[in-house]
Amino acid sequence: MNRISLKELVLSGVALAAAAISPNLFWIAQAGYAKLSTLAVWVLIPSIVVVFAVLWIAGKSGERRLVNRMIAGGLAGGLATIALEVVRITGFHLGQMPGSMPELAGVLLLNRFMLGPSLLSNIAGWSYHFSNGITFGMIYAVIFGRKPLWVALGYGLFMAAGFLVSPAVTALGIGFMGHQMPGMPVTVVLAHLGYATVLWALVRRWVDEPEWILGRRDGHRAATR
Amino acid sequence: MTAKNARHHRMHRRSALAAIALIATLPALASAQSAGAPIVQVKAKGSVEQVLGQIKKMVASNGMMVMGELHQGKVIGMTGLKVESETIFVGNPTVGKQLFGANPGVGIAVPVRINVFQDASGGTVVSYVPPSVLLKAFNDSKIDKVAGMLDGKLQKMFGMLGGM
Questions:
Q1: B93, closest residue in chain A (CA to CA)
Q2: pLDDT for the residue A218
Q3: Residue A174: its chain B contacts at CB < 8 A?
Q4: Residues A181, A174: contact at Cβ < 8 Å?
Q5: Residues A106, A122: contact at Cβ < 8 Å?
Q6: Distance CA A178, CA A161 (A)
Q7: Closest chain A residue to B89, measured at CA
C-alpha cells in the first residue's frame, strides 16, 4: 500500500489550481475587477496551457493515477455539462432564468456586449461554459476519485451555491442569490445536481482507483488495471 | 445714494454672499440644470481612471453591469484637444427586459449613460441624467416604476461615491 507520492501531490496541486481558474474568471469580470476579454488572454489561456502541461508531465513521469483522473474527470465533466444544460435551457424557456449565460459569457469574452452575440461569440461562450464543466469534472475526479453519490451531490450543491452567491448573479439585477427571481436559484441548483449525478456515474465507471486524493492507493492494482 | 437705498444695497450684497456660501456648501450630490434636463453631478476623490474603476465595482454590487465603454477623451484627443472623459453604459438584463417589454423605444434612454470627467479645476466629476427624466416622455406607469427604481440605485451608488 503506497501513499500519494510528493511528485503526484505537487502535480495534482498545480492541476487543481490551474483548473480552478476558469470558473472564477466570470464572476471576477462581473464584479468589475477586469474585463473577461482581458482575463481570457492573460489568465484563462495560460491556465489551460498549464492543465495540459501537467497532463503531459504526469504522463511522461508515469503518474498514471493522476493522468487517469484528469482525463476521466474532464470527459465526464464535459458530458455532465450536457445534463446541466438540459435543465438550464428548460428553466430559461420557462422564464426562470434572467438570460442565457453562455451567450453572455461569449459577448464578454470577445468584448462585444454593445454589439450583441454573434456566431463567434456564441462559440466562445459555449466553449467557455463547457471548459468550466470539464475543469470542474477534473477537480472532482482528482480530489474525490470514486466517492459515493452523496459526495458528488454535495459537490454539485457547492458549485451551485458558489455561483449563486457570486457577484455574477447580483449583476444580473435579480438580487443576492437571485431571490427576486425564485425560479432561478431552483433552476441553478437542479442543473448542478443533474451535472453532479452524471459526473458521479461516469467518474465511477472511468476512474481506476476509488480513493480520494490523500487516501492510500494500491500500487499493484493501479499498475495492473 | 439715500440711506434707505444704501441699506437695500447692503442687504442685496449680503443675500448674494449668503447664496454663494450656500452653493459652496452644497452636498456632493447636486442637480444642475442644463438644456432643460437635470444632470446629476457628483464630485469624487481620485483621478478619472481611479473613479471609473471604483464605479465599475459599485455597478456590480448594486445589481447592474457595465455593458459598454466610450473612451471620449481618447476619441476627442484625435482632434488635438486634451480632455479626460470616460463614459460607461450600465444596466442589467432584468431591467432591460422589463423596459423593452413595455416599449421597444426605450433604447433612447437605456442602458444608462454615466460620464466621468475632469473639470476645469482638476477635480473628478461623475454625471448622469436620471433615467426617470429620460423615460418620462413614454408616459407609461410600468416604465416610470422601473425608472424610479433605477434612479434610486444610481442615487445610492453615487451617494456612496460622494462620501469617498
A1: A172
A2: 53
A3: 63, 94
A4: yes
A5: yes
A6: 11
A7: A114
**B95 contacts in chain A (CB < 8 Å):** 173
Q: What grid cell was written down for B137?
A: 416622455
In three-state secondary structure terms, A145 is coil
| pTM, two decimal places | 0.77
Cβ partners under 8 Å of residue B63, min gap 6: A170, A171, A172, A173, A174, A175, B92, B153
Q: Is B94 part of the contact surface with chain A (CB cutoff 8 Å)?
A: yes
Fold for B3-161, please state it.
TATA-Binding Protein (3.30.310)
Facing residues of B86 across strands?
Answer: B116
What distance in Å separates residue B129's CA from the closest CA in chain A? Answer: 20
Complex ipTM over 0.85:
no
Q: pLDDT of A105-126, one tens digit each?
A: 999 999 998 888 999 999 999 9
The answer on pLDDT for B55 being more than 90 is: yes
The single residue listed with the C-alpha cell 470527459 is: A75
Residues 6+ apart with CB under 8 A from A127: none
Helices (H), chain A: 6-30, 36-39, 45-60, 64-93, 101-109, 119-144, 149-165, 167-170, 183-206, 219-224
Which chain A residues have a beta carbon less than 8 Å from that of B56?
Answer: 32
- Determine, for residues B93 and A114 on separate chains, whether the beta-carbon distance falls below 8 Å: no
DSSP string, B95-129: HHHHHHHH-GGGGGT-SEEEEEEE-TTS-EEEEE-
Task: Give the Cα separation of A167 and A29 in Å (integer).
Answer: 9
Distance in angstroms (rounded) separating the CA atoms of residues A64 and A222 = 8
Confidence of residue B37 (pLDDT cuts 50, 70, 90): low
Domain ranges of chain B: 3-161
DSSP string covering B24-68: HT--S-EEEEETTEEEEEEEESS-HHHHHHHHHHHHHHTT-EEEE
Tens-digit pLDDT profile for residues A13-28? 999 999 999 999 999 9
